[in-house]
Amino acid sequence: MRVLPLLLCAAYAAASAADAAPGPGVGPHESFAEDLLVKPLPDGRVLLHFEFAFRRNHTQHHYHLFPRQLGEIALRYGVDELHLAFTQGNWREARWGHPPSASQGVGADVRARIAGTGEHASRQWRGLTNALSGVFCASLNFIDESNTALPQMAFAEHAHSRAPALRQGYLPRENVCTENLTPWIKQLPCQSRSGLAALLNPYRLYNMHFHSMGMSLEAGASHAGERSEQAALRYTQYLSVVLDPRTMGLGSRWSLSELVGMPLAPACPVADKSTVRILAPPEIDLGVEPLPAEQSKHLGMDMYTFDLKLPDTAASDIELVFAAPQHSESAAGATQLPAVAVHRHVTGHGGSSGGVEATIVNRDSRDINITYFDSLPWYLRVYSHTLEIHTYAAGSDDDTVRSGQATRLHPTKMVYVPAIDRGRPSAMEVALTLPRHSHTVLRYSFDKGFLKYTEHPPDANRGFNIRPAIVSYAVDSTLDPGPLYCTSTSGRSSSGACIARVYSELFLANLATPDFSMPYNVITFTCTILALFFGRIFNLLTRDFAILDVEAEGSKRTKTE
């Protein structure tokens, strides 16, 4: 009788060992790494970029470090790729250089590749956005087919021949607050009790000039381009924030704990890697105390790497010492600017029509192939035949651009999907080759539609926020070190090239808005008329009218006197 329990225990132990053992070429079942990049900016501000990376065997369905909520959501809705970003503030690329993350458009940006086609994929997409809305306490449930675009070229670097279509939903009015940060931190294995997440102080993080928080989930694929049995599931959480030490009363010498208002905690116990990296641009004379054991060069800049897994590093704070206070805004011109920049604004006036003008700048000394992607809501009816593309030679300034002295540029490829009223937005993708040192201007017109009074957002007289345009291009690592996310595999295409994305500004579209106070005025006027009418009729019905003899009354008064 004792043999059966022993056999069951042995079988369970063997199954557990086989489940925990990694397969050939797969690596550990689950891994977790955390990293903080501190980069002083030329104008005196400081960039903090937190990154928490997970990796797990996709065939395993039990969870230890990997966030269970997101793993089950990806499995339930057939997600092959998912990107979510909440951004507040504009990244000033002319002062700060390349952005730290791939998504820096203001608002909430959701992109996903979902298995299936047609109505099934649409239902899965709606379920995914509703699930993410509940997890991150955001208004992502307002993403539906009417504000979802299906770009074909702008995000095609990770797509293989059998990859499902990419869907992108955007909420430009979405704000970022601590309600989004709290569930974001809860996805981490140590949360904010230890590790680098202990530095996430909401009071300092939201007293900022730029804030971007997001996550990316990617399912690994085999060499044939299809998901394999031993594919890995990669999940990354990142948070980028730009702080100004001068507004906190910090001078030319301050520590990391003074900057964020929280002490530097020991590494997360379950983290395989926990590092703090100080990236010193060449135009800034920066000293670090204490000096770390590892010093290297990264993207042409000095890098100091602190390993928080070492007990000596975890017990000490990290101080940054500047040779001179960075108070000059002109020092920002010394930083290396991205090769491509884009700016977009609305043209025209009145409530019936308008236009879009986007200026793409090529600062590089070579021609660059780019993809311009713009999606406008259905109530801005774009006329694709009005698209005009002109390029201006080197040395062009704003006066030359406005004078009309330009060369017409023809796109190498163009994809345009017209909008459907209350059904889907329009999507325009244009592949161009930008000449070196040039300004390229895209212009196209649209008509403004009429909305029902129930479709207007709050404060509709302010205008309608329109999502930014996106320019994608491949970074030449020999000439441009590229953005920080190019150092990770998630920022590279299947060919190994880094794909950089530049987001334009939002713009406000003024539409004809009804007088929302008119119902109140009508109700008030009607109630006043009814009250007056009711009072008169009520008096007529309830009063008893009698005829008085005025002469008889007068004679009675005379006799009495």
Automatic annotation (TrEMBL):
Membrane-crossing segments per the record: 518-538
Domain of life: Eukaryota
Gene Ontology biological process terms in this record: attachment of GPI anchor to protein
InterPro entries, per the entry: PIG-T
The entry's keywords: Membrane, Signal, Transmembrane, Transmembrane helix
Pfam family, one: Gpi16
N-terminal signal peptide: 1-20
Full protein name: Subunit of the glycosylphosphatidylinositol transamidase complex-like protein
Lineage: Eukaryota, Fungi, Fungi incertae sedis, Zoopagomycota, Kickxellomycotina
